[in-house]
Fold this protein.
Amino acid sequence: MMEQKQFQAESKRMLDLMIHSIYTHKEIFLRELISNASDAIDKLYFRSMNEEGGGKNRDEYYIELRPDKEKRTLTIIDNGIGMTAEELEQNLGVIAHSGSLSFKTENTLDENTDIIGQFGVGFYSAFMVAKRVTVRTKAYGADTAYIWQSEGVDGYTIDTCDKSSVGTEIELELLDDTDDEKYSEFLEEFRIRQLVKKYSDYIRFPIRMEVSREKLKEGSESEYETHIEVETLNSMTPMWKKNKNELTDEDYNNFYRDKFFDYSGAPLLHIHNRSEGTVTYNSLLYIPAKAPFDYYSKDYEKGLQLFASGVMIMEKCPDLLPDHFSFVRGLVDSEDLSLNISREMLQHDRQLKLIAKSLEKSIKNELIKLLKTDRDKYIEFWKAFGIQIKFGIYNEFGQHKELLQDLLMFHSSGCDTPEGYTTLAEYVTRMREDQKYIYYAAGETVTRCAGLPAAELVRDKGYEVLYLTDSVDEFAIQMLQKYQDKEFKNISAGDLGLESDEDKTALDEKNAAAKDLLAEMEKALEGKVKAVRLSNRLKSHAVCLSSDGDLSLEMEKVLNTMPTGRKVQAERVLELNPEHPVFAKLESLLNDDKEKLAQYAELLYQQALLIEGLPVEDPVALSKMICDLMV
Ligand code: ADP
Ligand code: MG
């Protein structure tokens, strides 16, 4: 007896929603139906293992895809557990009822079963591409087979049918092609193959399809004929579920290359973890050897591939990676996530947040390990992605600085070569007993930093100077403020803490004695510098510029190259070396020739700008001034 049945009211609304909004890509219907087939096989396998003499060997189970271009149908066949009439009614008649979820809660499953379904909506995604869905099924241990048919919201029919083998066949009669949507693509071999690879490659039973192959005719060297062959489309074992000790570096590297299409070379590092606890997941992460060409542009999208029980649910999930580790590639597979979860839901998912937190920790730990065990490789990493780590310290008001500070590396006067790097921890171990600060110089290159007038003095004291050559460096350092309780000190700013109290008093006295001279020079440089002072910062140089306040000269330079249109200026101080012959000359000019003194003040200021790598205001005027002095 055949009878038209209505979907339950909620189901109707849900079905409508389903078809029009839950899924953004129609193509996922295949993933859903294959996952259901896999679940059905898992259930039968589980059952038969727990029953004497029942069931098949594991390798006899399969899923088959059968496209038929003439009939415009795609059929998904499995030899899984099948459904009774009641089950058909329950599972396919009531949307949001998941037979698989019940199965999971009613049975204690072992690692051989991996049931995917739990939401009870996936099946209906078939209506995104099909005008009619026909299910023929015979349950394990049943005598009668049933046919279920539906054209969508109007309801469904159930009847008996002929089917000798246990399992389920789901036949989709595809919708007619429109200008926008070509449903017939789902009948094409290459498209089906592509979808299986993309979403269902790691389903643990073979997904088979008849494919046509051109082969040389027997005995002929040039004539081809078409062979029909059954091919398994999926690779079945997810690499990340294998045991680490079964895998070689080569396995990891090949997988990386094929999965992420990075042919530029082996990755620097792979991180393969299984985590059990509040959330269970497998992760396989890679750190590439080189930054992708678009890495430092806004086109670059961070993210990891996300799988739920081996089925791909998201190509690039950005929430799994913090910005400071955005260079990491890889995937996460969790049994605790549902297949039918939307992007919006994922963003708020607690499990996902826990996973992201623990991945962040493990990436950091692996990098620290690399730093300790293979420094050359770490430096390679640092050259490719160090800037991102430094931005990570500076961004979001420094909330990640604790996590990231031990990853930092800088050039330094303490390194054997100008290309060498030191970590902050290493710097601290080299600090002198009487050394209060971690000194740094900022400039475009190591040579520039090392050549700064004040660097000479600090080095002569036996203190190491970090050379900050990236524009972000000083911002990151200022965000850190301290490392292991040692404050950072820019050698071009403020009091360097190098002088004894006697030195300071002596300098104060000299400043007082030169009061008139300094005032005269300040007048000449009005609007350009805040003050002119004598200083102990200088050794062989006559002058330098320093800054008062938080904004350093180097930061001024960086900020002014940014496209915000706003210009900032550090509070500049022109410092004079009282031991230098130029100073004596200035003193004599104060009495003899005030006009010349003003000129010299200007000249010294321009020189100090040049030394700092700052632009001189008027190069032509400067050049003229120098020429005037010569004649
Ligand atoms: P879910 O997979 O999340 O449970 P679906 O809407 O995909 O939800 O499927 C609903 C239910 O229909 C499944 O839980 C399962 O009990 C049943 N089912 C679907 N496809 C099959 C199949 N091929 N063989 C046996 N049962 C199936
Ligand atoms: Mg499902």
Notes: The first helix runs from residue 9 to 22. The longest strand covers residues 207-216. The pocket of magnesium ion (ligand 2) is lined by residues 32, 35-36, 117, 122-123 (CB under 6 Å).
